[in-house]
Design goal:
Elements (H helix, E strand, L loop, with lengths): L1 H24 L3 H8 L1 E6 L2 E2 L3 E3 L6 E2 L1 H13 L2 E6 L5 H6 L5 E2 L7 H4 L3 E2 L4 E3 L1 E6 L14 E5 L4 H8 L4 E5 L2 H9 L5 E5 H9 L8 E3 L7 E3 L2 E2 L4 H17 L1 H9 L23
Keywords: Signal, Transport
Pfam families: SBP_bac_3 (PF00497)
InterPro entries: Bact_solute-bind_prot3 (IPR051455), Iontro_rcpt_C (IPR001320), SBP_3_CS (IPR018313), Solute-binding_3/MltF_N (IPR001638)
Length: 280
């Protein structure tokens, strides 16, 4: 009986050692990426100017696409892009369907329990757009009213924090939500500031029928999403972003996609790519 117990303990210990060894062998995602020669990014692909399809080349382009290509070049591999839904971004990363997320992903404390983040590469905020004919001039007038947005983003909790009684209806994509506003299925539409202005611009002359409310619901730091514990991969992501900042390339990318020469014509950058820390 004792001999059997002893042998069982030895076998169990040996199995544990093998298991730990296997886990260690598969812990370095960066090495796996170098081996396969491809870095797969999860992107939204419909979120101009961060990631969207060039109508001429049918290739993905955008601010975050440029950042992704810089990271892949730093590692010495090819960048590949996979379109993901807003609500599926983190599960796609956790399940290994993509290597990194460059998908307009807000870095917050709640998500830190699920994944790691690179340095903040853009700072924005959630805003609200309404039809001019609605007569709404402030987000505080949205109490008890139907507001539309995308499912799985931070927009709904951001609004609920400011206007708890708002009736929020979510859709699978921002396009569906914005169309719902145009169809009168809600009195307001919420999105990240940059994406929201882009949505309105796409309406052309009809854009004058809508107004963006002045209040920022929050501050949204966007960052690259990284699978938990992949320290080597995070180090390369952060190093690439720091080099873009120090070389002046980050400023050029901002001007290209957000500055006065772009469709959005945002003001000058008021932040730098330097930290992966966030408040709250």
């Amino acid at each position: 009986m004792r001999k059997r117990t002893f042998n069982t303990l030895i076998a169990s210990a040996f199995a544990t050692i093998l298991s730990l060894g296997a886990a260690t062998a598969h812990a370095d995602q960066l090495a796996d990426i170098k081996k396969k020669g491809v870095l797969v990014f999860g992107i939204l692909g419909i979120d101009e100017p961060n990631s969207f399809v060039d109508p001429k080349t049918r290739q993905y382009i955008g601010y975050e696409v440029d950042l992704a290509n810089a990271i892949a070049q730093k590692i010495g591999v090819k960048a590949e892009f996979k379109q993901v839904a807003v609500a599926a971004r983190i599960p796609e990363l956790q399940q290994g369907h993509v290597d990194l997320l460059a998908a307009s992903l807000t870095h917050n404390k709640e998500r830190e329990a699920l994944i790691d983040f690179g340095l903040t590469h853009f700072v924005t905020g959630s805003k609200v757009v309404v039809a001019k004919k609605s007569g709404i001039t402030s987000v505080h007038q949205l109490g008890g009213k139907k507001v539309v947005t995308v499912k799985g983003g931070t927009q709904e909790p951001n609004l609920k924090r400011v206007v708890p009684t708002a009736d929020v209806v979510t859709f699978e994509s921002t396009q569906q939500a914005f169309l719902a506003l145009q169809q009168g299925k809600g009195v307001a539409y919420i999105n990240d500031e940059s994406s929201l202005y882009s949505d309105v611009l796409k309406l052309g002359p009809k854009g004058k029928d809508y107004v963006v409310l002045p209040e920022n619901l929050n501050v949204e730091p966007l960052a690259i999403g990284i699978k938990k514990g992949e320290t080597a991969l995070k180090a390369v992501v952060d190093q690439t972003l720091r080099e873009l900042e120090s070389s002046g390339a980050a400023d050029k990318l901002y001007e290209k996609w957000y500055g006065q020469g772009s469709k959005l014509k945002f003001g000058k950058r008021t932040w730098k790519i330097e930290s992966d820390k966030v408040d709250g």
